[in-house]
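Researcher: Here's a chain I'd like modeled. Treat it as a single chain, no partners, no ligands.
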Amino acid sequence: MKIHRRGYAALISVVMVMLTVTAVGLTMTVMSADSLLSTMRFDQGTTLTYLADSCAHDTLLHLRDDGLGYVGTHTLTVLDGNCTVVVTNTTGSTVDVAIDAEQNNYHRLVEQTVDVSTDSVLLWQEVED
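Model: Modeled as a single isolated chain. Structure tokens:
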């Protein structure tokens, strides 16, 4: 009795090609999901940067108009984001400003030092959590 092995070789070849195609497809899916997540985080970071800068500019306008009368804690709402602004008088006409921009549980923190008497920004920096 003769056993035909040519069919087994073809079957194994087809299975190997299918496994390779499946592995490539899964790899591409994972890479695509990771790329999408990175893009979403980048967009969120950009939006928060704009929100923090907008709140910082709004604070500068209030300091220009109200001077040291704007010292305290203020909350600003812009679209679906919030900024908590804390203005403290350090010495004379110099104030420190801490801005926490928040949207969808992401945060961006900005610090400013402003001389109210000359409307000069002495420091403007983004800080880590």
